[in-house]
Amino acid sequence: MAEAADELSTPLGQKTTSKTRRFRLPFTAMQALAVLLGLVLVGFVGVALFNDNPLGGEPVAHIALRKASPATTPDKQAPAGPTEAAKAAAKPPAAGGDARNDARTVTIIDGSSGKRQDVVIGGGDGADRADGDSPAPTSAMTGVDPRLLEKSRYGMIPVAADGLKPFTAYAADADRTKAARAPVVAIVLGGLGVGAAKTADAIMKLPPAVTLAFTPYGADPGKLAERARAQRHEILLQIPMEPFDYPDNDPGPQTLLTTLSSEQNLDRFYWHLSRLQGYAGIANFMGARFIASDPVMQPILRDAAKRGLGYFDDGSTPRSVAQPLASAQGMPFAKADFTIDAVPTSAEIDRTLVKLETLAKERGTAVGIASALPVSIERIGAWIKTLDSKGIMLVPLTTAMLKSKSS
């Protein structure tokens, strides 16, 4: 009937065209894309949940350590490959040598659980390390006396033994007879070990009588300290201590804090002591709050004195209790009279150096501290060249400590 009605209402001479029905999908393109992305996500989650790979695709190196064949002789041994290199790393140190010389750390990864374990091969100082918080093994330094080292859970740390002390064993050479008669100046350059370039400049551009103080941080502070000693510099180890504005101003990991017990601070102290070797004494690194507190400073200086170390106070706070505590322990001590580059400009550095030499003439001994800024190294180096003409002797810090103690 509808068709007949259409024909009746259609004007004469015109045909009715029937409308073609379009085919439509039951979903839109956006819906299809969403479903596709959902399937990809479900597949990814499935792989993550059910694939037995706890390391998440992290590359893993497998090293096979095999015993050498009895038939192998030195003259017929094959060229060293990866396995031979691993065996060489595991070779025990020679008798009477420092066990740290051949220490190597290998990380063992459990393929089923993903658990990591650090194992020291060949070194006697770190065989117990599996806690992951110990520093990288420090290579033994040239001229370090193995009798003046003892094992801690972090590595080898200094100790007095057989009547020897690190303070005397590692003190730089100096004409102490002449120093007893002449005005003397000691210069300590601190903050070394972090930044190989500035440390190298300090080592090579300043004369051996300049004492270099290393922080325990950096990729390999022991290697840089060894280089300094090879150039006949005397070295100190700076111990990070709590400043007044801590933690806004944070010296670094394992900082000694006034809020910790003496046992906790001593444990942190040993961590720092293990970072390098061959130093004659220790110094504070920052620490205005810590060095002003007798209860927390006393255990540290008592332990350091027993180990035969000297102590250098950078003079950053007048409230420091270090001098009376060190004196009570019979510990060699010195305090900086001036921070040479407190204002790091050539003019101000030169003015402070003049003050330093004036004090040396008046009192007989003066000590200055500076950082390893290029301008500081340049101005101090130029000033040192003028000291002979002024009748002033540049000496290592240990010599200045001994002169002050005797006078």
How much helix is in the residues?
25-40%
According to DSSP, the number of beta strands is 13
Provide the CATH architecture of the domain at 166-406: Alpha-Beta Barrel
- What percentage of amino acids are in beta strands? 15-25%
* Uncertain residue ranges: 68-104, 119-140
The backbone outline, from C-alpha atoms, is: elongated
Structural class: alpha/beta
C-alpha Rg (nearest Å): 35 Å
CATH class group of the domain at 166-406: Alpha Beta
Give the integer mean of the pLDDT values: 81
As for the CATH topology of the domain at 166-406, it is TIM Barrel
Order of helices and strands: HHHEEEEHHEHEHEHEHEHEEHEHEH
How many helices does DSSP assign?
13
Q: Tell me about the biggest sheet?
A: 9 strands, parallel
In whole angstroms, the N-to-C terminal distance is: 131 Å
Q: State the fourth-level CATH superfamily of the domain at 166-406.
A: Glycoside hydrolase/deacetylase
How would you describe what is shown here?
- The chain is of the alpha/beta class and 407 residues long.
- It is built from 13 helices and 13 strands.
- The strands form 3 sheets. Strands 5, 6, 7, 8, 9, 10, 11, 12 and 13 form a 9-stranded parallel β-sheet that branches.
- Helix 6 packs parallel to helix 12 (374-384), helix 8 crosses helix 9 (294-306) and helix 11 packs across helix 12.
- The longest helix has 22 residues, at 29-50.
Summary, kept brief:
The protein is of the alpha/beta class and 407 residues long.
What's the SSE blueprint?
Elements: H1 2-9, H2 29-50, H3 82-89, E1 104-109, E2 116-121, E3 149-152, E4 155-158, H4 166-169, H5 176-181, E5 184-192, H6 196-205, E6 211-214, H7 221-230, E7 235-241, H8 262-273, E8 281-286, H9 294-306, E9 310-313, H10 322-328, E10 333-335, E11 338-339, H11 346-363, E12 365-371, H12 374-384, E13 393-394, H13 397-406
Parallel strand pairs: 5-6, 5-12, 5-13, 6-7, 7-8, 8-9, 9-10, 11-12
Antiparallel strand pairs: 1-2, 3-4
Helix pairs in contact: 6-12, 8-9, 11-12
